[in-house]
Amino acid sequence: MALWRPWDNAPSHEEMVDEPVQAEFFHKDLEEQTQRVILNMYDCLKNENPDSSQNQILNRICILTKISRSTIYRVIKRGDVVNHSFHRKRIGQKLKRIDVGFQEDIRRIIYGFHKENLVPTLEMIRDKLKDYPEDFYNYKCSDSLHCIVKLCGFQYKKLDKRMVIMESSRIVELRQEFLHKVKIYREQKRNLIYLDETWYDTHDVVQYGWVDDSNKCILNAPCNRGKRIIILHAGSENGFIPNALLLSAKNIKESCADYHEDMTSDLFEKWIEQQLIPNISPNSVIIMDNASYHSRQKNKIPNTGTKKQDIIDFMKDKGMEIPQKSTKAILLDLIKRQKFEKEYVVDNLLQQNGHEVLRLPPYYCIFNPIELVWAALKKK
Fold it and tell me: Which GO terms describe its molecular function (predicted)?
């Protein structure tokens, strides 16, 4: 039985002309298998008819496959099967097999740029990889290198400048000290109480929703923000402290832009004394942030903004010797050498009632779980 070949019914070479043939289908990117068929047909026709010109062979393949002549010409000229979709798939499979040591080198390069206070880019990383063996040549193109960097756990996103402060030596030391104390308190099975405040406007509504441009999607809500409500509460692993909720309403016109300024030290200290202390168990640990109304000092340590006479009075109260004809800068330097510890009114009030205060490290409000409660409350 004779082998059937698709080009047996096609016009002969004598009937073919060198003019281009109009194709029914145009394919910008062919599948891998289709490209292989075109190459095989070209080799077979060229071997059977060595006297035929390239244009005649191209026209014959165009008639048989219904593919444009220019596409067939590009496939044959390239002489290799290249398909973008298959190529990406092969790259992805190769990336999964990248050596762990090479990934560590990528991380070391990126960390090195950050250590030098430089923002790394793909071009900068590629320059560092020039000294690597030729085995990694295929990974030095932009697409492959981008995939490798993502595979190493990096993301291209907006830089958080606060991280510079949060990872400074002083803040790191405070963070470690805070976590160490929390661990000790939990081992002692002491009651940890977290407190924080937030605000809410009575006319607040949801900001986003499904609407169109018609007047049927108009929300009947006041245009003004109404009254601002300051919410102050405390809680532990057992839930909110009973009878400790404080709601302080204020007209929005009289309210400041920042709710931290609406809350005052007098209001906070009154809440501590009348609502928090009577409702918590003895020997509790109160965890709070370093807001100004949480941190009113009993005897404020003088600074450059303090009057000279107030500095002298402070030194007399502490029993310090005051040199004659001393300038303000000299007096402040003497106070600084003594290293006085700050005494907060709230801390003294809680300690007198058998409790202890633990301050959150700066910039680490995430250590206060009640912040998550306020965030969930505002989403509803």
Answer: nucleic acid binding
